[in-house]
Amino acid sequence: MNIVVIHQSRSGNTKKAAELIGGAVASSENKVSVRSTENLDFKELANADLIFVGTWVDGLILFGHRPGDIGKLNLIPPLWGKNVVAFMTHAANPGKAASKFASFLEAKGAKVISSRSINRRKLESEIRPFAEEVLAELN
Ligand SMILES: Cc1cc2nc3c(=O)[nH]c(=O)nc-3n(C[C@H](O)[C@H](O)[C@H](O)COP(=O)(O)O)c2cc1C
Question: Is 64 left (phi over 0), alpha (psi -120 to 50) or beta?
Answer without folding.
Answer: left
